[in-house]
Design a protein that fits this description.
Blueprint (H helix, E strand, L loop, with lengths): L1 H27 L5 H15 L9 H15 L6 E2 L2 E2 L4 H14 L7 H5 L1 H11 L2 H13 L3 H12 L4 H9 L4 H27 L7 H25 L5 H25 L1 H32 L4 H12 L3 H10 L8 H22 L6
Helix pairs in contact: 1-2, 2-3, 3-12, 3-16, 4-11, 4-12, 6-10, 6-14, 7-8, 7-13, 8-10, 8-16, 9-10, 9-14, 9-16, 10-11, 10-14, 11-15, 12-16, 13-14, 13-16, 15-16
Amino acid sequence: MKTTLLYKIALGAALLCLVISFVIIFNSGLPQAGPPLIAFLFLLGISFRGFEHLKGFTYSILIFAAVTMALYYPANFQEVDGFKLTNLITPLIQIIMFGMGTSMSAKDFVGVAKTPAAVGIGVMAQFTIMPSLGFLLASISGFPPEIAAGIILIGCSPSGLASNVMSYLAKANLALSITITATTTLLAPLITPLLMKVLAGAYIEIDIFKMMWDIFKMIMIPIGAGLLFNKLLHGKSQWLDKAMPLVSMFGIGFIITIITAAGRDSLLAIGYILIGLVLIHNTVGYLVGYWFARLFKMNEKDCRTVAIEVGMQNGGLASGIAKEMGKIATVGLAAAVFGPLMNITGSILASYWHRRPPKE
């Protein structure tokens, strides 16, 4: 009872901060409204924990709060005592991938043998629909070449762990979701650089072999270490199983915040347009992914799975690739925007499907 009251107090305080923000914006302009806006988002995210239908949005709202901090106070997220925080992106990606490896086993790949057609359709959809959409949106965006290439990069990336959570909530085929995620992730070191060379080569210079190595060290090495860890210490490290999802969530949020701070000026110049294009990329990915699966006469659960796998990309990996290219403030911008939006749209879609169980 006391806990519920605290969440309601947090919601009331959030609304008060929002009113204060509007007053400041009206009298002094948006640049002066930073503190109450940030407080509003943080308090709103906390208050959502007290409402069953809203708690799934808590993480995304807190990400928006951190991003708002980065936009208002970018210097605090760029360097600390001369150390550039962008240098943490690759290690954080490797930690996240290690966590993915510790949660995997050979059983996750049995699905490839059991349902090769379904997995093949999902993988094909993943590496054709989103890259094509990304190329189309980049072509019509009118953005500077490096930012346009970032839209293509998020499209050429594999699906991420968030898609597995959303598939579970949407009453989709979780086993198929995990298998598609694992397969596209392991194929990424080969397919993502090739797609980038073909689709983004006109925008920026793509060194295929360097990108292959960059993705390999961010994915294959830590996942391999995680798999080995899981095999040798299975059942002996329950604390790690509980900690890794939290570490992954923090890592992704931190990466998005760092990229936002690094690319603040570009984001302020094209922010609304970029958000619109990324939202189209994400939502059309769900739609086309679903009907792509329907085209192959897959059942409702599998169609939902493919839709979510296609629409939700591994923004963290795309950010890491942009960092290794030395273009985090430009090529990495689309990935920074895609992550929070993807979690919100994915939660909405999963909630909608959750209330409508698939007919067998």
